[in-house]
Amino acid sequence: MMTIAAANLSKTMKPYRTSPRTATRTASLLLRASLLLLALGGNASSAADRYQIDSEHTYTYFEYSHWGLSMQRSRFDITTGTIELDRDSQSGSIEIDIDAASISTGSDSFNQIMRSGDFFDSANYPKISFKSSALHFEGPLLTQVDGDLTIKGISHPVTLQISNFSCRFMLIYGKQACGANGSANILRSDYKLGRYAPFVSDAVTLHISVEAIKEY
Prior knowledge:
- By secondary structure, this protein is of the alpha+beta class.
- Helix content is about 20%, strand content about 50%.
- The protein has helices at about 1-10, 20-45, 110-115, and strands spanning about 50-55, 60-65, 70-75, 80-85, 90-100, 105, 125-140, 140-150, 155-170, 175-185, 205-215.
- The chain has an 8-stranded antiparallel beta barrel with strand order 1-4-5-7-8-9-10-11.
């Protein structure tokens, strides 16, 4: 009896088949779940915060001796870039781009001279850049950044000495922000900017005052 009943039951049961549309939806859901898990895993393993440089509160300027009479200062009005910072592991990276044509000396005619081929040649080399290779901390404070400075297509290693490093939540932005002042000593002649040296000093001090806002 049991054998006959089982045979009759097997005749009435239909095998379960998944429709192509259902299978496609299932595979799509599984793929999305896998990608989400990978993304969450990547975020968990990378604790570095990314910041965009705030151009309105960032500027770059340089100082040099003018014929031994006075220390002159000129600045660049446009500085952009990104900062990645992991203060827990004391690591990160910094990339800064300076618009060479944005030089501002206080004199329109002198600005044109500084943009010319005798100096920054901004028509052919529109960007001055700094890219870090190592960040150094003392306790919680960033104190030094090593990297490469590129001017007129020529790169040399430089060290930025950092002062006034600070991070805080900014109510005005509704976001975390970090700021610092950095300076480095360079030679104009290393970057084919040495016209009138040594009467106008070959040695130049480069200053970067930067503020950056955290991305969310």
